[in-house]
Design goal:
96 residues, elongated, membrane, transmembrane helix, transmembrane
């Protein structure tokens, strides 16, 4: 049971890292023709897709701040923090 939690934690950390990298690349107007930028944008597109409507009016090139990506980062960090608090509380009460 503990093994799936470790995998899930790593998966969440990888997803959040990918979203943070995407946000930084777009804030600094990374060249979309670069292979690294293309890879990060392609990998993170599936994560950002549900919130794409928030950024429909954003320009496709240049500096842009994707509100959907930022919202996902905040929600992911809040969820991870709540989960960590819950796990810490369970382990101190001997439930695990």
């Amino acid at each position: 049971m503990r093994r799936w939690r470790i995998w899930l934690e790593w998966l969440l950390a990888a997803g959040l890292s990918l979203l943070i990298t995407r946000l930084v690349l777009l804030l600094f107007a990374a060249n979309p023709a670069q292979p690294f930028t293309q890879l990060i944008l392609w990998l993170s597109q599936a994560l950002v897709w549900p919130f794409a409507w928030l950024d429909a009016a954003q320009p496709q090139t240049g500096v842009r701040f994707e509100r959907g990506t930022f919202l996902l980062i905040v929600l992911g960090m809040l969820g991870t923090g709540i989960w960590q608090l819950k796990q810490a509380r369970r382990s101190t009460h001997g439930l695990e």
